[in-house]
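Field reference: sequence -> structure
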Amino acid sequence: MKLAKILKIALNMVRANKLRSWLTIIGVIIGIASVMAIVTTGEYFQEQVTETLEGLGGDTITIVASVPFEIYSEEDMEYEENSEEIPGESGATIAGTGEGPENFTSEPMEIEPETEAALTRKDVFVLRSIPAVEYVNVNVQTGAQLKFGSESTYVWVNGVDPGVWPHITKKKIGEGRMLAPGDRAVVVISSELAKGTFEKEVRLNQMIPLNGKSYRVVGILAKDGGLLGGMGGLFGSSVYMPYQEVYSLQNNEEDLSEREQDVYDNIEIKLHDEADYDAALQEIERKLRLARRVTEDKQDFYVSSSKETIESTQKLINGLTSFLAFIAGISLLVGSTGIANTMFTSVLEKTKEIGIMKAIGAKNSDIMMIFLCNAAMISLVGGMIGILLGTAAVQLILFFISVKMNVPFEFALSLKGTVIATLVSIAVGLIAGLVPAKNASELKPVDALRYE
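Structure field:
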């Protein structure tokens, strides 16, 4: 029997029982729409979170000074306790204290840092000597009061190397220019600070006072895009300036004298594109330990990588999406049960017709293909409608979220989710219709013709 004839018979079977077919299709629609919506939403939020994290320095390595702590073993603590409890000749005093045992109280042990750690220009020279390192940027951070007209606000100032920062940052310039080597008394500000903080908009080339010192605005950063774009301003600095200028913003003369020695709050590193990431991290730690004359146990700095944070976040979102998709997929099991029930009923109704087709020469494979195509049509129609409804539901959710967060709406469609949903819908129909189709193909013509 030709394929066109098989498809025509299967389509007529679907049309003959419209109500039953549509009730079965609705079960498939609910399952496919749920899976489609969850997979699309999960992929979209994964892209947005990844974009946000990368905007905060996704491919950079950050080094901060960390103070090592002296950790005592149990044997050391027991030894110190025993040495303090050795009685004097009179048996009434504690060695080295001059106090009686009745006046002795056990104070909780406080673990204090050994020395004050700091990142300096020497560390920058060491990092620049590593072949895998392309850019080294220093950060000096502080808070400052910004007055604009009659209004004032407290802003976070990040001092950067003007020759390196434009190459290492993920932020884009909206108006004006980035910082450049040789800049003095100039700043680049965020879009939120320029347009959303004061009644009047801060414009290019205007002078803004920070802690009483005036700085000219040479650039305004572009607003981060995407659903989570506005969150970038919460974690980033509002004002960027050459790091040498930040030292003069300190109000405390003692702090100022310490910072004049080129002490940095953290150092950012960008590797060459072809560099081995893991090997470079190990080389950075090894060379810094040698330069700072510390061992691994006494290490007074910490190397953090945003790449690891991004990967762990992606795994978390993928795991959560897969779990929710699995839960939603249970409704597909219910839909497949409906398809199987419809197919068994169709076999009973078409028993006599099956006998006639076999009597005039139809093969078992032809009968089986007819019922399999019938099941596939029901599941495919349900799958296509489910994909459309699931996609529409996602757009509706994202639209309301964008309105609430006051960000532009972005259409989201998961190609992977669409392909998976289509294949799953067909597979569900074929699997659910396999047993009824096999039963129909194995009917004997004589028994089928005598069936009432």
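Note: Strands lie at 60-65, 133-148, 151-160, 173-176, 186-189, 207-210, 213-221, 239-242, 266-271, 301-305.
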